Amino acid sequence: MSNYMELKRKTIAKVIAAAFVFNLVVMGAGAWIAYQEAPPIPEQVVGPDGETVVAGEDIRDGKKAFQRNGLMNHGSILGNGAYYGADYTADSLELKTQHMRTYYAEERYGTEYESLSTAEQAAVNDDVKQDLSGEYTGGNIEYSAAELYAHEQVRQEYVERYHEGSHERGVPEGMIDSEADARQFADFAMWTAWFSHTDRPGGEHSYTNDWPYEPAAGNDATGAAMTWSVIAMVLLVAAAGGGIWLYQSVRLPEPSADDLSVPEPGDVSIFPSQRAALRFIPVAAGLFLAQVLLGGLLAHFYIERAGFFGIEEIFGVHILQLLPFAMAKTWHIDLGILWIAATWLGAGLFLPPLLTGHEPKRQSTYIDVLLGAIVVVTVGGLGGIWLGSHGYFGDLWWLFGNEGLEYLEVGKVWQFGLLVGFGLWAVLSIRGLKPLLDREPVFGLAHMILYAGGSIALLFTAGFFFTPETNIAVTEFWRWWVVHMWVEGAFEFFIVAIVGLTLVSMNLLSRRSAEKAVMLQALLVMSTGVIGVSHHYWWVGMPDMWVPIGSVFSTLELLPLVFILYEALGQYRAMSETGGFPYKLPFMFIIASGIWNFVGAGVLGFFINLPLINYYEHGTYLTVGHAHAAMFGAFGFLALGMVTYMLQLAIKPERWDESWLRAAFWCWNVGLVLMVFVSVLPVGFLQLEAVFTGSYAAGRSLAFYNQPIVQTLFWARLPGDTLIILGTAIYAADLIRKRFVLRASEDDPTVEDMAVAEGVMSDD
């Protein structure tokens, strides 16, 4: 009797459908709760004499100023955004407590706070905490005299810092173009500080679950953060055992080198549509090169806040004024998304003829149209960001210019253009895969590719559910649907589907076998990654119900990444068994993607997503390490592996030279290791210690970044960044070189022209 379960593809498909519905129900209910429980924007904030200090409209206009001027890519709000500047919530809360101490010291003792005795300081501290404690019961927010004084001081500070400019902080002059807008931005920041220390009605903790850590305001980690961190670790051990049992119990096909009939590159014909799909590659490479160059500049900004190796002293112009950090960071993030997406779109259109031997009429023309549309949206979006931030679109800045939210910087019109691009890609993929789609069931491999691509587009629509008028907590709820569910859901799904398709095209797996493996991986990813987005809701003004939900599902996100790594290593083992395997370099990229996915998204992601760690770590350099290892290491390397495979098939076999690509591969990997482990993570751990021993604001302060040891670690990033830039330059140069040795495409291709299509089409 067999010890293995033989799961049928149809059974897995039903479970995936059930998991999908369950995810929608949970997150749909969460969306309703988000609107109900968001921190209130009062009609007005009043002083002790009843005079209006801030109107609700000022807070809303302050949020608009925050987005319009790109402040989320300079600093952060509620811990989300860039780490170069202050976190505005923590900064305004710290300034509020400091100025309240100053007020009470002067009022009670007639002197400065620092001059008071220890007992007198303790009395003042108690007065401040007493003012900031208590719950919101509705109506206007009522300030004490000390709070009113503090609010006015913070307004003045923010006008000086963000309107007049502060080069020592890396803030260009006129970052916010008017004094009135800067005052309203201060009102918005102070409102987020207010709901970070004010308890929910009937609750024991503030709207942000007492984040940020600020002892002076009485903010400290909740008991739930500790409890659910322990539960999460117990669950991980239990789930790991269950996952191993499942993997051992379900008989899944393994890639095998036995009796391989791997098609040699020269045995595969190239169709016109594949030549058209290859044109995505140099466009993506140009975006990639621009991205890494900007990344190097951003890293250097942490050392010279307004300069670049002293050049400004020669020319008399601060680079910060020409290219502010916020603008460079905005372009850096968007270029990263765009080059990876463009490469994947090209790969998704290159593979169908390989598997079907089918060339729809005018397919290459339509692919050229799609590429042209993507170029227009890219140029329009990136240009619109600059124009919008300089006021060229007036009140339409968020439609045509810079929406100003991290990862969703481009205006809504350009976001819609990207969505249309995804739709066109889906149509072209359906045309190319039609022979397979017609023959296979709805859970077949070709369908899986469409589902993966479709889910990327579907989740992107969440970015249209808010405007600059929307409450920041609700805005963050929807923004993380796009950002996190892409990365932990749709992108992971796309990875396993595209790798499965590639294995089939190499004859390492039968189509039926690949379908079963891809579906099981998709089930694991979907069962953990979608609801796992909720760890982003712990401190942004959402209710504390997300703490247990986010802890459990974020912990379990590690499991599918372990299995993806296990699969990748199994594939590598099979490939290594045969010395004549012609696609070793593409496979090296796929293996690297699996390893970095495990390290970046898995190990580092698990560590920073424990609630108790995340409370102190949220928005520090540890997140930078996680993001770079996961985004470039996992998704970037997969894209580059697909490029290598496409090029190897498309270039004349006798002219194939992989030496430059191999050099680029090692530059990228070694550079990423140096960047993450020698510089970024050490800074992150020092930052974590600074928060533990002081406050969150202290860990994000200019004083922390200017410490000699931190500055030394920033300089230590230079070799890693240089290697990554060098690898990208070699890659771009190699693409230019290879452009002249591409094979001619078949004018009238048939199934017989494809070495693998016949086998795939008959594999039912």
UniProtKB/TrEMBL annotation:
Cellular component terms (Gene Ontology): membrane
UniProt protein name: Nitric oxide reductase
Biological process, per Gene Ontology: aerobic respiration
Pfam family, one: COX1
Keywords annotated in UniProt: Membrane, Transmembrane, Transmembrane helix
PANTHER family: CYTOCHROME B SUBUNIT OF NITRIC OXIDE REDUCTASE, CYTOCHROME C OXIDASE SUBUNIT 1
InterPro entries noted in UniProt: Cyt_c_oxase-like_su1_dom, Cyt_c_oxase-like_su1_sf, Cyt_C_Oxase_1, NorB_cytochrome_c-like
GO molecular function: cytochrome-c oxidase activity; heme binding
Transmembrane segments: 12-35, 225-247, 280-303, 337-357, 369-393, 413-430, 442-466, 486-506, 518-539, 545-566, 587-608, 628-651, 663-686, 714-733
